[in-house]
Amino acid sequence: MIVITAPTGNIGRRLLSLLVEAAPACGEKLRVVVRDPARLPDAVRGRVEVVTGSHGDAATVERAFTGADAVFWLVPPDGSLTPDEAYSGFTHPAAQAFAAHGVSHVVGVSALGRDSPLADQAGLVTASLAMDDLIAGSGVAYRALANPSFFENLLEEADSIRSRGVFTDTVDPDRAAPLVAVADIAATAAGLLLDRTWTGVGSVPVLGPQDLSPNDLARIMTEELGHPVRYQRESLDELRSTMLGYGLNEAFVEGMVEMKRAKDLGLDSGVDRSPRTGTGFAQWCADTLKPAVLPEAVDAH
Questions:
Q1: Can you tell me the distance from the alpha carbon of 42 to that of 38, in angstroms, rounded to the nearest whole number?
Q2: What is the CATH number of the domain that holds 197?
Q3: Is residue 47 assigned to a domain?
Q4: Fewest CB atoms within 10 Å of the CB: 61, 83, 157, 246?
């Protein structure tokens, strides 16, 4: 039995689709933990067992992990909490339930940076790495998917890219860093969950095929979208003010600011990328960004 948390999110829904297709041939049963079962795709709803509730709730994970062999663990972002509450606090009931129910394998969504000298001052990344330690301490075999920033973050700026030809971030425009498509994270998770011959505790970096700077992204978007796109750097103070204006927890906002500062200082750098696999940014732009930014151009074809 494989349990999938956050099955309607960007990563979870892709993972669920992969597992639903592969599970029958592997003899695997699937169970999902979801707050609103109506959000599950019709195509999978009848092919999985559903536990309704939050996977941060002790009673919910008690039900969800009974009889489970493996768990896909993803903490949903919650800007109303402190970083420690949002990651380790949310995960604590599950870590206890892993041990109580004899769960053998867990695959979790985490972040790059554990081996960086910036790891203990990287805000949300530091909190994510502490969550990994909590899970590893439960006695399960654990693989943390160590991810950089997602291509999909750019979808939040689709309107700005469409109307102004501008996207923003806080990093140096020429700092090249790894990035990843969420589909590649889901594929990596599926492979680990279906073939549980691995043991112990470790991290699995999930990276796109090349490091890219914001200026590189702007150039590739310009080529793929067919109109000029440029990068506009904002300051950390501007980011802080914007997020506080949304009413987010002050400590969570500082965690985001610290993470962005650490990334600009090279938190994600120096990770071995061999072999060079995964979705390239140009392909992601053609398949995912262009339909979001220019749906009329896609419809015309």
A1: 9
A2: 3.40.50.720
A3: yes
A4: 246
Q: State yes or no: pLDDT of 299 exceeds 60.
A: no
| Residue whose structure tokens are 């000029």 | 228
Question: Residue 23 domain-assigned?
Answer: yes
Confidence of residue 194 (pLDDT cuts 50, 70, 90): very high
Give the chain's mean pLDDT.
94
Tens digits of residue pLDDT in 195-254: 999 999 999 999 999 999 999 999 999 999 999 999 999 999 999 999 999 999 999 999
Q: Is the pLDDT of residue 270 over 90?
A: no
CA–CA distance, 285 with 256 (Å, rounded to integer): 26
Rounded to whole angstroms, the Cα distance separating 33 from 6 reads 7
Contacts of 111 by beta carbon, 8 Å cutoff, 6+ apart: 124, 125, 128, 129, 146, 147, 148
User: What one-letter code names the amino acid at 201?
Assistant: V
- Look at residue 239 and tell me if it is in a domain: no
In a domain, 287, yes or no: no
Q: Which residues contact 145 (CB under 8 A, 6 or more apart)?
A: 107, 108, 109, 110, 185, 188, 189, 203, 204, 206
Determine the structural domain holding residue 98 and report its residue range: 2-150+181-205
Give the pair of three-digit tokens for residue 117. Answer: 């000298």
- Separation in Å, CA 219 to CA 72, 94, 181, 229: 36, 43, 18, 7
Contacting residues for 246 by C-beta, under 8 A, at least 6 apart = 79
How many structural domains are present in the chain? 1
Q: Is the pLDDT of residue 275 over 80?
A: no
